[in-house]
What does this fold into?
Amino acid sequence: MEQSDLAIDREMEVDCDIGQEITIYIETWFDVDKKFGTHTNGDDGSWINMYGKYNPFADTLRIECEIDADDNKPKVR
It folds into this structure.
């Protein structure tokens, strides 16, 4: 994976509960099916969302991926 494979969205969200986690959306510019073993390329109604969640107090970074679909039903194959 290279730097050109990802783009970080400029909008950030801070959790409302305790304000300790910053969430950003990560655009994926690589073949997510090949990297994660999913099958979204052939289905225009499903995609992968990737998020970075940073806690500056604990100095931790977590990356989360979700498979989403137009019909709101996860499409895991």
